[in-house]
Amino acid sequence: MLFRTYGIRSVTMDMLANQMGISKRTIYEMFQDKDELLQGVLKWMTEKQREVSSRILNESENVIEAIFKMLDLMKDHFQNMSPAFLMDIRKYRHYAFRNMDDKTDIPFIRIHEDIVTNGIKEGIFREDIDVQLINMCLQEVSRMSNDTDLLKPDDLIRKDVIRNVYINYLRGISTQKGLDLINFYEKKQIL
User: Fold this and answer.
1) Full-prediction pTM beyond 0.85?
2) Which of 57, 69, 103, 134 has the most CB atoms lying inside 10 A of its own CB?
3) Which residues contact 182 (CB under 8 A, 6 or more apart)?
């Protein structure tokens, strides 16, 4: 929580120890340094994202409902995140993936593929699309929303960028059933 609130560089091992009610020595018994601790935190966050995304996808009536739920979750997530954390994570993001041998271990890669595959089965997305190619494109849309070089603080709000680009991209791969569901959930969001 401290990393998200203050950014990675601003948080010291003393702050972390104090927040957890343990000694700094106890932290160093488990982690060699702040970088290793950060890697552990990011790995934990990744696992939590995977669990929440899978739960949302399984509990939703269809993939479009799941997508809107995930977008709302992301909106809340971004609103509670320090800009310093976003800038720092960009510098340190290689730590998040250092120990992940298979890209399917990264939650948004796997969840996008699940969304597209399930959407085809549900008749929401067209059958003629290439799931792997669409997955890569959806990853880029997600990546773009976190690109601090692309989105300066005075520019569009990240949540609006990802919602507009992501939803419009989905319109392009949707069947009429999918388009109707997108329109339904968009109107529901406005009300």
Assistant:
1) no
2) 134
3) 64, 167, 170, 171, 174
